[in-house]
Amino acid sequence: MEKRNLRKERxxxxxxxxxxxxxxVAEVKKVKHPMYxxxxxxxxxxxxxxxxxxxxxxxxxxxxxxxxxxxxKCWRLVEVIERAK
Length: 85
Known about the structure:
Elements: E1 9-16, E2 22-32, E3 39-49, E4 60-65, E5 73-82
């Protein structure tokens, strides 16, 4: 029985859903500056596959790494954690 590799998972907020079956998810991290010690916000954007087009802007979602689906899309939607109000 073959063992599957561990897939990366990220939690972020949907910033765009204008594409068909695709969403843009922004992950925000607080990173401590190496010299000055101040916490800085770092944002990383991921393009994820949303098969049912059920995400809206502002939703908090969990995405998982997958095979490349297009030039920029190699993540897929796992679940919607919280809907936007």
